[in-house]
Structure formats: structure tokens, C-alpha cells
Amino acid sequence: MxxxxxxxxxxxxxVISDAxxxxxxxxxxxxxxxxxxxxxVGAYVAxxxxxxxxTLPFWARVARRVExxxxxxxxxxxxxxxxxxxNWAPGIAxxxxxxxxxxxxxxxxxxxxxxxxxxxxxxxxxxxxxxxxVVVHFGAIFGAVAGGFVxxxxxxxxxxxxxxxxxxxxxxxxxxxxxxxxxxxxNSGEHAVPAEKRQRLPLRSYVPILRLALxxxxxxxxxxxxxxxxxxxxxxxxxxPSEVSAGMAFAIPGVIALAALWVNARIRARGGVLPDHxxxxxxxxxxxxxxxxxxxxxxxxLGRVLFGWALFQILVKLEVNxxxxxxxxxxxxxxxxxxxFQNLGVLLSSFAAGAIVERFGLALPFVLAAGGFLLTALxxxxxxxxxxxSPAATATPAMEAPGHAS
Length: 406
What we know:
Layout: H1 3-19, H2 25-33, H3 38-62, H4 68-86, H5 92-106, H6 112-118, H7 125-180, H8 207-225, H9 230-238, H10 243-250, H11 252-269, H12 278-292, H13 297-325, H14 331-360, H15 364-382, H16 391-395
């Protein structure tokens, strides 16, 4: 088994570990601290995003001097330790402090993404990103299902220890890779940048990355705006109170993403080149989001299909753009910047969704999200300039290469 397999396996475990409690914090806080407040739960989830936003750039800087896999041995051990300690937090304030320290340490696993992309040839970036997108999506779904089972069977303590187990499993995988010699070093050896060639990037070189980050912020805000109240909308529309039915409808984009990954892989296997239909996919996704607001479950399900296809294709395209605009030695740093803006989009959408639904009802978030996809298409066309995937372009430093992503 190669390094890629182990990194993807670690990513799966990390996503599952993250997702165990995310859908169940209302039940978690009610059971442990007798706290029944939707505002508190929203603030806590928002604080998790802020913790990741603030600490990932720090870990990216540390990873310039410490091999990423070595770093994860310590950070994931600490994350698991803080998770276990949170089980004995006597009050809500102490739980906040210890659990936020856990998420700060846990966020370092996101460095595995740019690490793997640094070891992947540019012509294979789109395929690798597609696999990771599907892995992350299904990992989150499986984590939510597993989290519900663990919480129901072993209670909040079981959920906490399950999260810690995921962190320590990642630590064990990193330790095994280091001891077995399977690790690929990026701070020394053939992948390292010689000290004499290292230099601080000029401020103007950040402009393309910040443009992409702005597009990602708008896109993620729009995509996540529909998530918090989708299940409630489905249940009201169908008259079916079953959470299983709502969960199946929620999972439709994940199934479509898997189909899209298979289609893309087939095209590449036959030597074909995937066309750039970014704007077209955004228009398709916008239409799918509008169908979410239709007063018919069949139309809503069709909207989920269109939305799932567009979501996968756009996510892959935006991530490919990041690695075309960056250079290998700066992947982690630039990824931390775009990840900050993506988390900001998710954070803003979490606050906005509740306010919109409370004042205007369940349908409006879908309409606004459709408008957000249209705005993303406009920004992509107007401000986002990305070098082409030709060999000449990839050989040119991405900061200086001309081009345009449509």
C-alpha cells in the first residue's frame, strides 16, 4: 500500500471523527449540562469554525520547518488528550475551553491535503481532488450516522471517546509511516526548496489567491446556506416526520458526487480532457437550488440531483484552480488562506440561515443560495484568472502566468 492510501485513510478517519457530534450538539449539551439553547449551539459550532480558521495558518507555518507527518504525531495526540479531558469538564465554560483547544490541535490534519497534492503530478490533480471530495462527503455522512448510533448507545461520554479514538488512530498511522520509512519528506530531499531559493512572496503575488478565496467564500456561503434547515423543509413539504427519509434526501448530492467522479474517471481513462464548464455548472446548480423551493417533493429531489452534480464539479474546479495558482512549496500556506475564507463563508451562512428562516420562512434560503451561485458565476468570469492546464502553463510559475477560467 502506498502513501496515498494511508493519507486518504487518515482523511476519512479525521472527517468521521469531526462529524460524530456536529449534528447532535443540541442533544449533547442537553444531556451533559441540561442546556437547551439553539443560540448556544449555533455559537459553539461557529466557534469551531473560528478555531480552525485561526490555527490552520499557524500550523502551515510550522510545517515549513517540521515535516507534516511528524507534526501530526504531536498535534493529534494532543487533540485526543484534550478530547478525553473534556469528558470531565465540570461546567459549560470549562468544556468550551478544553474542546476548543482540541479543535485547534485537530485542525492540523488539514495539512494532509496540500501535502498529498505536493506529491501528486499536476496532471493528476483533478482526479485526486475528485476522490478526496467524495471521500470527505461520504465520511461526513457516515460520521453523522455513526455519531447518532454512538450517542444513542453509549451517550455523550461514548461520543467523546470515539472522537479521541479517531485522533489517536491518525497519530498511530503517522507514527507507522515514519518508522516504516514510507514517509515522503517535503522539507528535505527532492521535494524540498533549497534555502537559497526561499524568499518571501511579494504582496502582489497574493492577489490571484485572494480573488479565488473571494469566489470560494461566496460559493461556500451559498452552498451551506441551505443545509441547517433542509431536513425541516423536507419534512414539512412531504408531511413525513421520519428523519431517515430526510437523511436520504439530504444524501442525494453525495450519491450524485460519486456518479460524477465515476464519469470524470471514465473520460480521463479514455484519454479525454474534461471541458471547463464552470459557469454552466453554476447555472445548473442555481436551477437546482430554485427547485428546492418548489412545492413538490419530486421537483425538490430533482433539484438535489442537479445541485449535487454542480456542487461536485465546482468544488473540484475551485480546488484545481488553487493548485494552479500556487506553487508546490507554497501549497500549505495558500491552502490555509483559501480555507480561512471558506470557513468564513460557512460561518456567515450558519448565522444568516437562522435569521432568514425565522423572518421569511424555509423557502427563501434556497432562492438566495441560487442567487449566490449566479454571483459566483459572475465573479468567476470577471475576476478569476487561472493559468491553463497545458504543460507550458504548469511549467510557468502560476503567479505570473496569464489565463482565464470560465
